[in-house]
């Protein structure tokens, strides 16, 4: 998921039309709301002097200019949408201490469960081929905190202020292959839809693989 700038504002240039339509809709859904309300419910900083939001996402600080909700940084376009969708859906629900699988999300029975299998296959295979030290280095590079758990490695990625994603990893041995799970908090539906949750999970997987090359 390499970063690229999609020229939505220039009709003479070829662009990802689906993304541009989703971006336009996301921006239009936010413009009528008060910045203070958005900031309070999403747990982000509103800088009145510059009429902008500051949103921490993984290891990056993202600046969003009002009134058009334009993001200054060059982001992967799905990451761009995730940030705006989060601001739009966030309702201020307190963060839950309970973690659940993607299949347990609202409407997650089909797509979420399928993604849970994808995580185990892709991240289990990817991290299982690395040393624990290298695996931890990759997670920390993306801003994750290493936490104690029953897993061999537990990393919590601060995707958005009230939307962390947890990685639990078990390294393989002669009898069992490596396995992995990504989890979200029980109240995650108050901040992203299941479709966005899966996109967020796929984004984390992609970033982990890219970080190995750095």
What layout of secondary structure does this protein have?
Elements: H1 17-30, H2 35-42, E1 45-47, E2 52-57, E3 60-65, E4 70-71, H3 77-89, E5 99-100, H4 111-128, H5 132-141, E6 145-147, E7 153-160, E8 163-170, E9 179-185, H6 194-211
Antiparallel strand pairs: 1-2, 2-3, 3-4, 5-9, 6-7, 7-8, 8-9
Helix pairs in contact: 1-3, 2-3, 3-6, 4-6
Domain DUF3786: 35-205
InterPro entries: DUF3786
Protein name: DUF3786 domain-containing protein
Summarize this structure briefly:
The protein has 214 residues and is α+β, with helices and mostly antiparallel strands.
Describe this structure in words.
The protein has 214 residues and is α+β, with helices and mostly antiparallel strands. The protein has two domains: 17-89, no CATH class; 99-211. Helix content is 38%, strand content 21%. It contains six helices and nine strands; from the N terminus they run ααββββαβααββββα. The protein has helices at residues 17-30, 35-42, 77-89, 111-128, 132-141, 194-211; strands at residues 45-47, 52-57, 60-65, 70-71, 99-100, 145-147, 153-160, 163-170, 179-185. The strands form two sheets. It has a five-stranded antiparallel beta sheet. It has a four-stranded antiparallel beta sheet with strand order 1-2-3-4. Helix 1 runs parallel beside helix 3. The mean pLDDT is 92. Residues 35-205 form the DUF3786 domain. InterPro entries: DUF3786 (IPR024264). It comes from Lactonifactor longoviformis DSM 17459. This is DUF3786 domain-containing protein.
């Amino acid at each position: 998921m390499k970063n690229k700038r999609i020229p939505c504002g220039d009709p003479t240039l070829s662009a990802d039309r689906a993304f541009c339509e989703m971006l336009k809709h996301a921006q239009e859904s936010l413009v009528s709301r008060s910045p203070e309300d958005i900031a309070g419910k999403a747990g982000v900083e509103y800088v009145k002097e510059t009429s902008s939001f500051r949103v921490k996402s993984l290891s990056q600080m993202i600046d969003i200019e009002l009134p058009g909700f334009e993001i200054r940084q060059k982001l992967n376009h799905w990451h761009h949408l995730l940030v705006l969708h989060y601001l739009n859906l966030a309702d201020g629900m307190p963060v839950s201490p309970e973690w659940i699988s993607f299949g347990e999300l609202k409407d997650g029975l089909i797509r979420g469960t399928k993604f849970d299998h994808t995580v185990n296959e892709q991240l289990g295979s990817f991290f299982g081929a690395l040393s624990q030290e290298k695996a931890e280095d990759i997670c920390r590079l993306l801003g994750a905190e290493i936490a104690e758990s029953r897993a061999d490695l537990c990393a919590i990625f601060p995707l958005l202020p009230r939307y962390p994603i947890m990685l639990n990893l078990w390294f393989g041995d002669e009898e069992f292959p490596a396995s992995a799970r990504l989890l979200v908090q029980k109240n995650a539906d108050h901040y992203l839809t299941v479709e966005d949750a899966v996109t967020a999970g796929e984004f984390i997987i992609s970033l982990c693989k890219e970080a190995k090359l750095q």
